[in-house]
Design brief:
The complex is a heterotrimer. By secondary structure, chain A is α/β, with parallel strands linked by helices. Chain A contains 21 helices and eight strands. In chain A, strand 3, helix 14 and strand 4 form a beta-alpha-beta unit. Chain B has two domains: about 260 residues, FAD/NAD(P)-binding domain (3-Layer(bba) Sandwich); about 120 residues, Rossmann fold, CATH 3.40.50. Chain C folds into three domains: about 160 residues, FAD/NAD(P)-binding domain; about 150 residues, D-Amino Acid Oxidase, subunit A, domain 2 (D-Amino Acid Oxidase, Chain A, domain 2), CATH 3.30.9; about 130 residues, no CATH class. In chain C, strand 16 and strand 17 form a beta hairpin. The radius of gyration of chain C is 23 Å and the shape is globular. Chain C starts with 12 loop residues before the first strand and ends in a 9-residue tail after the last helix. The chains are: A alpha/beta, B alpha/beta, C alpha+beta. Chains A and C meet through helix 2 of A and helix 8, helix 11 and helix 17 of C.
Chain lengths: ~425, ~425, ~550
Amino acid sequence: MTMQQYNISENNFEQCIKCTVCTVYCPVVPVNPNYPGPKQAGPDGERLRLKRGEFFDEALKYCLNCKRCEVACPSNVRIGDIIQLARIKYSKSKPSLRDMILANTDIVGSLSSTFAPIVNTTVALKPVKAVMDSVLKIDRHRTFPRYAGQTFVSWFKKEAQAKQDLYLNHVSFFHGCYINYNYPQLGKDMVKVMNALGYGVHLLEKEKCCGVALISNGLINQAKKQAKVNIDSIRKSVTEEKRPVIAASSTCTFTIRDEYPHLLNIENDDVRNSIELATRFIYRLLESGKVKIKYRDAAPVKIAYHTPCHMEKLGWGFYSIELLRHIPNVELVVLDSQCCGIGGTYGFKKENYGTSQGIGASLFRQIEEVDPQFVATDCETCKWQIEMSTPYKVKHPISILAEYIDVEGTINLNK
Amino acid sequence: MKFDTVIIGGGLAGLACGIRLQNRGFKCAIVSAGQSALHFSSGSFDLLNELPDGTAVANPEEAVRSLDPKHPYAKIGDQFAFYAQEAKQLLLDSGVEVQGDSKQNSYRITPMGTTMPTWLTLADFTCLKNATDVIGKKILLVNIAGFLDFNTKFIADAFEGNGAACKIVSVSLPEFEKLRQSPTEMRSANIARILENENTLHALASRLNEQASSCDVIALPAVFGLSSPAPLQTLKRQIPTPVCIVPTMPPSVPGIRTQKRLRRVFELAGGFYMLGDSATTAETGDGKVYAISTVNHGDIALRANHFVLASGSFFSNGLWASMDGVREPVFGADVDFDPNRNNWYNASVFEPQRYRTFGVATDERFRIKINGKVQDNVYAIGSVLSGFDALQEGCGAGVSLLTALYVADQLKK
Amino acid sequence: MKNDNNENNEFDVIIIGGGITGAGTARDCALRGMKVLLIERFDFAAGATGRNHGLLHSGARYAVTDKESAAECIKENMILRKIARHCVEENDGLFISLPEDDINFQSKFVESCHAAGIDAQIIDPAEARRMEPSVNPTLIGAVKVPDGSVDPFRLTLANIIDAKAHGAKILVYHEVVELLKEQDRVMGVTVVDHKSKETRKYYAPLTINAAGIWGHGIAEMAGIKIGMFPSKGSLLIFGHRVNNIVLNRCRKPADADILVPGDTICLIGTTSSHVGFDEVDNMRVTPEEVDLLLREGQKLAPALATTRILRAYAGVRPLVAADDDPSGRNISRGIVLLDHETRDGVAGFATITGGKLMTYRLMAEWATDLACKKLGIEKPCVTMTEPLPGSRSEEPMPTGKTYDLSNRIKRSTVGRHGDMASRIASSNELDNSLVCECEDVSVGEVQYALKELDVHNMEDLRHRTRVGMGTCQGELCACRAAGLLGEAHNCAHQAKADLAKFLNERWKGMYPIAWGEALRESEYTQWVYSGICGMNKMEEE
């Protein structure tokens, strides 16, 4: 008999057996009573919404899409996806100007980079912050990440691109908005490390913002367009140029791999396995013995590693942690995994500021208790949040690797 | 990825096994598909409360001798008492404070106020010697206003049945009012989060002290200490009257804390705990398993010398029932079950249920079989095993802990 | 013999049975000024009323085989949409032809529908797939009809509320053990109160037997034989709404060929098999019936093959053989009103049976007309126009953006209680706290039911509110609800025992389909209530 061998329901909402474990791990519930919680907003609400769409509740927007409910769920219910899809399907509220600004990280980024000195100075001014706070509802406690004067892409084209074809192996690099506009140094570090390992680094034919902020701000059609551009470029890189795609940001990676098919209906089956975080890519090379790394002599350092939410969901913290532990003289303390509260653009919104800081409080306490020299993490928005909320500097594992790698020695070792 | 041992399942059995192995110098990974059943713990660990025929058990060490050879305990045999002691020690060494004795069952209090026999009880709770003992003569029974998963009336009914007098009060603090605005989130774990704050605890203590004058014990719901026992200790310091904690309906705050603690101990010993990942397929051959693949790690397989299946029963998806059979999804291991679905159930929900005795078939050393062939390096532990009804016999935690340690000791580097 | 009569035990009419027929008759009689007593041995809607599809038949199903029933159905269908809005979902229905069906049947079907006054339209299969994406995509024909769904518990309750409002006395958990006969006249009944175990006598010039299949036994108390045939029908409830339009097969009625969406779920049914009278109190769904329902059901909507099942249950239809055909071969599903005075020479006694949930109002009208005739009352029936409580006014729904779960809860309560929802408290946090999270049942709603809707136990509460009817079948909410019950009745001990009974009743519907997710849920529930709470060791009540 072929009936009832397994149960199928959209995003497994019906595999929920009402055990309430998700509610224990939702970072929003304890700080915002207006959020119905993952169980109600997710599988419970879904049954009612199937009855009639009017059971949709706009309060679902308080979900910061961290997916910690999904990681905790013993029944494989894609709670976060259910909630985000319900927002996409039923929400009638239009994104505000503020949400558009926050969501369009690349347009705003490219404008701001051109006028970086002006923008950086302007958004840091108190009166400007007050206007942003009251008119745009962007919380005044927030410091906007500074925009770099030169984008990563223009640096790369000018300084690095020409040399990349000289390498034996090749990868494409999905740099993301943050590296391009705010922190080109991480991109430079990536090129340095990959080059040292014998890999040429290339830009994708076209790269758009991965769209995570568009999704969370309800700009779905635009997110779909950008996702299509990205997947087409990635497909070209993987299938035609035979270049796997690496990235530095856990959120961009997660979005492209999982949110595209689940939320945007953009199929990526054929290339999904070729999009990964650089730390995982390097781990694989090291584990298989294909490359070796030589490190500089350096003084012992204590690093605290924070697992970003989407890293937790990817399950790939392992690779960054192993890579950092691979560096001699590194004492790595892995922090108890919990949300920092920023949730991408979520924490920038005035109405979420309190929630955001409330969520992060115990993580900040943990870091202070460990008192490391600096914090390591794979997510740019976690970096902002931790740097805004603690006295500690935050570095990406690739930057740390770039700092400790002996480039010459590594090249020689792999000859 | 290469490990000495990969454990599938991160609940009580998987963690106990992982900690023991990690302490013996093994490099272990635990793959856990979501959080475990410890989140619904009673606050106690049962060893053996009843024989399959319904005979009550006072001394598990003695009673275990009369079990059927298919029972997991029978396979541990003479070493039962040794491993019971080792299990208790492992919990204590991990910072999970427990009380109890494998030679003499004690009694725990249920969320209904009734008593049940048990083996080890978390230090949060009161452990009774006899089934009809009471925690005090005059009890102040307290609930947090609006918390529906703790029923003081049910508890008082049972306490009073054993001769105690109860005064029921409900406490409200401004700190809870915010949470109460949510129609659903007034849950034990969320209340416990609020009670991590020292000021809130202090406010609660003073409210209780106002009411406690004529009582000899204060009974409170188990909403203290999600991550450490500190909140309860703080509260107890501020209340001169003895405080007794009574378990709530799930989720179980002390259970969650136990899970977190054991995971932390495993990780501090160098183990990798991969939460939210599920094993999908296994690479097998020649009566051995070489690697497993998981959803998250995809093409990077987890290779190991040994594999331990600690994936739980139906609830945890360690076993999967369809209309026509029961299977084990990771290895496709042989499963003991009755092919006639008519025999799976008893029409009375509180009677023993046949389906609960189904599980993975193992040899005398707990090694699994695939198509009848024993797999040399794959072991099964805990509730995925066949041959016992954990609820009827009251032996779920005991089977998990004892088989975990027994198997851990079988493995050679 | 009538010397113990007094105002408290004398009525104009006694109605036996608290199903939809009894409730409807009680309402109609009360509306026409009679002093009414209704006696029900368990709860309202505990028999066949609460154990069917909940289908608001358009009549199309009977159009070809039984034109009279079909015409009754469509008429009542239109009436219920008006008088019982809050119990009805206007979903529409499709009669689909599959490749294995004779497509020629379709034209005959549509013709018969039109003859019976049913608006049946042939639509293109592609259009049918668009209207109802879950439909079997291989369909070769489809006809759209005005089917819908109706909640039998709400409908019965609304009739009871109105009957009470018009002075009817309602006794639940009271069982008729004897018909009081004087010569050839039924004078009243002897009743046992199941709770107090006390016996009392009630008198009336007319006793109406509306006890469904159990009416067979009631009639026997008067020495009367009715040719009843208990026909068991089993159904499966799925975890969510797979379809939003009722799906039927366009062929002669057969097993498992109706899939009805109702509230949060959908159900497939039914099987049909004759059973003995000794079995009617203990219906069990067999594995063979489950298999059949699934096998046939997935032909309507293939998704059923992989949709989680919540439970299985069975009801007993009171089929009645025509008086001239005691063999039962020629059974009609039409309404049967028996005046035992003319039929059997026993005065003061009538039986109303046969029929369907759909035609309850008409059955009540017929029975009440007979009562009027017997009692010399001349008052016309108004139930075809007079809305039921809950459907009298439009309860304002929360509008606009909702940032508050309590608005959603309000939607759920209005959905269940119509305009009566205004009686549900929602002013503070406790009122708005959810007892049942699957079905959005708040503390306020439970307390309203406990206070105003004759709730004696957890089962009654479930019928009034949907507590425990959702995905978890009571795992999360049963204990909370039992707590409130214990508080309302001021007896925690009894409430705990009732909780155990409730869990057992839930399990009886779950074990026939306990595999996959349903078995996981069951194991978890048993873990919570036996393992953690130790309810398996609580002393038997």
